[in-house]
Design goal:
Layout lengths: L1 H15 L12 H12 L13 H15 L3 H6 L8 H7 L22 H8 L2 H4 L9 E2 L2 E2 L13 H4 L10 H4 L12 H6 L14 H18 L4 H20 L10 H17 L21 H12 L8 H6 L10 H32 L8 H12 L2 H13 L12 H27 L28 H33 L8 H44 L5 H8 L2
Antiparallel strand pairs: 1-2
Bound molecules: zinc ion.
Length: 566
Amino acid sequence: MLRAKHALAGFTLACGLVAAMPQAHGYAIEVHKDFFDLAFGGTPSTQTVTPPTAASLVEFRKFVYGQAFTNADFRRRWPSEASFDAAAFKTFLQLNPGKTVVAIDVVPAGRATDVRTVVREGSVDPDNDYRNQDRLFTVGGQVQLDAFGRAVPQDPRTTWFGGLTGTPSQFDGHGATLRTGKKGSGIWTALRNPSQFARPPVSLGSAPDFSETYTNLAMIAKLWGGQGSEWFALTFGGNNLHGIEDLGNQIHTTVLGTPKFFIDAKWTYYKIRMKRFFKKTNDPSSAGFTAPASLTPAQVNEAMVKIKAGQEDQVDKQVLFALGKEPKSYPTDTDLGIQIIGNHHRLLEDFVQSLYLSSRDAIAAGRPQDARDEIKELIRIARAGDATFEAECRAALASAGLGTKGKGETPYSRVIAELMITKSAPEAQPIYEAIRKVSKKSLKRDEIYNEELGHKPLDFMQTDKTSNKHVRKIWDLNGKAFARVVTAIRLWDETFKAETAGVTPGSPAALARANSIVDRLVTRQLTRLDAEEQRRTDYLAEKQKEWDALQKPKLGLIDRITGWFR
Ligand SMILES: [Zn+2]
């Protein structure tokens, strides 16, 4: 009985770790941009493109609508051209309609128009404009609240792999777990096969789907040939690269990382509980953290800006409650697990970025003697690419129909992205264990590492002799990841060019090909939107059931016994 109870407690923790990716940015902004240079030589591009005007943003959307409208299911959702405004376009693409998204709402003023800049910036727009964050279910301008008064996610999937708001809420769009193999949501999978752990036990994360969507938009824009067409194609192409690059990063393809974090969290949890055994817990509801009567997307946006600026205390308490951010009297084992994984996630990414950038800058400034040897080696390995991975990608693309199907019909971005996951996921546990070996002990307990709090990664690492082995492992696995990413984006670029070749943009043949890509995009997005709605219906029903169960007076013996086994 004791053992069973213990395992169940562990099960709760493992499940909770699904929401374990605070501040997950994938590769840091500058590293994302550098992949373009690592793949294509890094010489400043002298070729420029014309950016779209505000009117062209509308024209491009109308072009998509003109073909999408021929689909009856699409027409039911958006019956007129006027109904398909910028917010609707974002809803269709499963982006947050309340965020200002590059190439849909705006063309950033002051962005240089050379090809290199347009692609590099496009590759970081999905991080910078928050398009995948805070997607909440909104009806008639009101964020919908569940029976408990908590904000309802637009797609509960974002909470399975990430979180409801903030940076964790973009993790679904910027990561993905293995598409193959048997998933498990129990303690045994968590401990013995963490790369297959998921709850619910399905493939998590949508990064490959977003990359495919952006690739479709890039091809459509290129073939459409209207004003700003090249800029659109390069920007959407860059958006697509973002997802492929994030999936190269091993820790974006796993929920748990390593079971060692799980044990760290358990150990810390019991230690804290022992220490605070006699302390009273306080009830946040008595301090005003209660369900709000209503909530608007503007209130959520305002709250998230303040929270990110460290001013959570200035946010309305009811808004905090609706977002699940009321103060907790002491952390649960799940909270601790999330925090410990988050610590190591951020530490690893910041460590890699800071060392990479300082050496890269030294080389660029003509001082290669000041660059670290391991970074020179990383750059060499990245530029060389990964020939084995390339061959595997080409084989996968051929079997997906590339070269035999009509141009524009093969989902090549998704194929490349999913193959990337199969390489990255098995490396997640070793790289997490390597960073765990060199992190300060306190980060495996209840201390927080976060660069946003002014922390420097090296201050949170142990740098004794034995740590060298683990640091070498980190660079070795980063070299593998960088080489894969460079190979993938070269291959994507080659395929994109081939799939849009042979026709003059704007010609009838080009428009026919563009329209067939719109058809494919519409079919896929409608399926995804239907699935999202179904998940939301299930989610709301589940919350209602939980709420109803709490309202029932629990007097009977049966009720009490059932309670034990929940
Ligand atoms: Zn990202």
